[in-house]
Amino acid sequence: FTLKKKQKSVIKKKSTVMLMGGKGKRMSGITRYKPFILVNKTPIFKHIFNKLNSKEKIIITNNNLRKKINNKKFKILITKPTNSMFDTIYKNKYFISNKSNYFLTSCDCVGINNSKKLEGFLNKNKKDLVYFAFNFSYFQKKLGDSHSHIVINKKKINIKVKSSYRGPGYGHAGYFWIKNSKVFKFLDMFKNSSLYKGFKREILIDDYFKNLLDKKLISSNYYLLDDYIHIGSEKEYREYKYWDNYFNEKKYF
Q: Could you tell me the pTM of the whole model?
């Protein structure tokens, strides 16, 4: 008889690319350095890498934040400060469009999940792109347009970018699994489109992926997280600190 070869794990040595090139305007009332806010006594950007169990840690950042990282464990790519996640991607398109099987994440959110279950899912996934979804908390439902939404209709994924909660559906977490590098082959097409030029707000990577899905240029899947922390605004930070202090104080009673 012959033994079947074990399927090679695409995330055995997981790579994570973190976008840290923004100006962090929504947190300006609290800090200039959003990625260094502490979560479980660890800067949130390090906490994200730990939760994703990343072996290769790549950070796309600007010189202002680069000076605060000072850690040889990270590969650093320098970019100028940008006004949006999409702009940071676009400025680094030659690097980002030639890489496959990796997490692409912002620096202010982290999901909690069963790592073995997630690994099994990603190894079986055949879609170009995986969204990460979460169930809205009561607080997140009241945040207006702070989150994008994922609506599943007959297995088709529809993204509502930065819209108020209407239900049903899930929240879209601020990171992706990029299985196929082709998902970034259309950056110039989007940048030069009338859709891009017509935006009156910050343009997000969600807008870019939604456009590709609507045009059926890429395929996608989604994975539901067990829990989710997002600290992209002052309100979310204060909410996090309230419950963090609450549960830490409970340990003493």
A: 0.86
